[in-house]
Amino acid sequence: MWKIIVRRILIMIPQIFVLSLIVFLMAKAMPGDALTGMLDPSIDPEALEAMREKLGLNNPWYIQYWDWISNAVQGDFGQSFRFKMPVSELIGQRLMNTVWLSLVTLILIYLIAIPLGITSGRFNDTWGDRLITGYTYVGFAAPLFIFALLMLWVFGFHFHWFPTGGSVAPGEVPGTFSYALSKFTHLLLPALSIALISTVATVQYLRNEIIDTKQKDYILTARAKGASESRVYNRHIFRNSLLPIAAFFGYEITGLIGGTVFVESIFSYPGMGMLFLSSITIRDFSVVTALVLLYGIASILGALLSDIILSLVDPRIRIK
């Protein structure tokens, strides 16, 4: 097992290097630079050019890349031109909001998907199965940002059940119960919006696994030996059907990366996704490149986590 983990980590190193290079080149390919449109137009163009020279924006791309990646390895992603503070500090302020949103979303995904998938798979071709399958079809077809806007309008603006923006109510004191409750209520609606769409793939996969497992020879043998139906499902079908779901845990994390970017913007939730979109619009390239690199590393780590879990639950796929 340790050999597999070390081998995958060694493979990750060139992946992260290539990712960082692609991220940097894409940022350089964007029109303008960090100073474009951010300064008073009355400033002398020569002074503006001197500032670009001082910041190294006129250096060849490979020199700029080396300066950027060498500092990034040390945790220094540069300075944000908009917020006038180090990028690492700025991301640190938003990081926990996104982490908590992703964590609550993951919990909701499995709380919704496992009961629905089990019910649909066990009682397939019934009206309950048709309703659940219809829900998954709608979920596959509905764009996440449209569904999130609908959830915000219905439960935020119409019924006023949830806050419509921010991550905590003004005036709440950190460390108190009311502060924690406010944080939870602010992230619950965006987390539920992502979960109701993201859960459909897990529901369908679990349903198909259960239906397929019911036809296996060892299940037919267990029934032929007189085992009760509840014992067959609890000891054989459910257990074997849930193992592959656990293996996709890392890929669920990867899938959340794209969802939180748009949902945070829709709900004005101050996480890394909202910071990412706002930084693109104002050409704050130091923030954009840092966030894209961190998102890419998180995706790679999610894939590694899935491979490790899959090798644990199914020893047949272990690489020797």
Features:
320 residues
Unreliable stretches: none
Taking all residues together, what is the mean pLDDT?
Answer: 78
| Gyration radius, rounded | 24 Å
DSSP, total strands? 0
* Principal-axis shape: globular
Largest sheet: none
Percent in helix = over 70%
Task: Calculate the terminal CA-CA distance, rounded to whole Å.
Answer: 9 Å
Q: What order do the SSEs take from the amino end to the carboxyl end, as H and E?
A: HHHHHHHHHHHH
Structural class: mainly alpha
DSSP helix count? 12
In percent, how much strand structure appears in the residues?
Answer: under 5%
Please give a structural write-up.
The protein has 320 residues and is mainly alpha-helical. Helix content is 75%, strand content 0%. Helix 6 crosses helix 10, helix 7 (177-213) packs across helix 10 and helix 11 packs antiparallel against helix 12 (285-313). The chain is globular, with a radius of gyration of 24 Å. The mean pLDDT is 78.
